[in-house]
Amino acid sequence: MTKKRQEAVQTERTLVEQTAIEQPKANVKYKDTIFRMLFSEPEHLLSLYNAVTGKDYRDPDALNVVTLENAVYMGMKNDLAFVLEMGMYLYEHQSTYNPNIPLRDLFYKFLVFYNGLDHKVPDRMELRLSDAYENPVDEPDLELKVTMLNINAGHNEELMNSCHVLQEYARYVARVRKYVAEMPLDEAVERAVTECIREGILAEFLKKNHAEVVKVSIFEYDKEKEEKKLRKAEYEYGREQGREEGRIEGERSGRTHLLTLISQMSAGEDADKVTQLTDPEVLEAMMKKYGIE
Q1: What is the spatial order of strands in the sheet that 63-66 belongs to?
Q2: Is the pLDDT of residue 104 over 60?
Q3: CA distance 109 to 77
């Protein structure tokens, strides 16, 4: 591992430690997300399935929720897997846009519900495995397509109207984000939960799971902040690497041009001026004369 990479890794570790210090009440033992908790209930999951597919199944008992014990990402088990009739369906909730999702889907998921803060993500988009190929081709031999649905408030109105639980979930998330910008995290989550119960937004679910929802919401928000800091550290590392690579490439290119210039001058009428190339004005004039840029 290079020295710069070691420094980047240490920076990421430091950021993670700082995040833990900033929010000591966030309980990392809570592995679920509000989305997973909410839609693990068969009647809610069936409503979501109907909204996504346009079907009209009425019996929640026909749906069997299963668990993928090894589906872990950033310490979070956030997959929803279920069997309905002869089909197995795998849903995932993501708060971070990840174009490499199709690569991971080779193992365990095929529909993604996105509620991150990237405002460029449309209501619906198709992610392809081939987008991650190092050498893209027009018609790859191996392809996998994944549908990603934006479930932030204000997106996918038809889907939200078809699944009121999903719509209320989006409103709850938006409420938490609104108050986090105005007050400490713990207070923001508690206020959002209290108001939503009073206004009938996921009221029964929040009353039944009040304490756990507060703790999970805090953990989810901390995770979101942590991911942003890690991405920032990676970006800074990549930018620094780019600068270093650019500098090295520039020096390499400069040496090549200089050697070419000396060779051409030595073979022509300017051989006696080679020793004067340390003068910037002479160097510039000779580069221009011999068409070397």
Answers
A1: 63-66, 79-84, 87-94, 111-114, 145-150, 124-128
A2: no
A3: 13
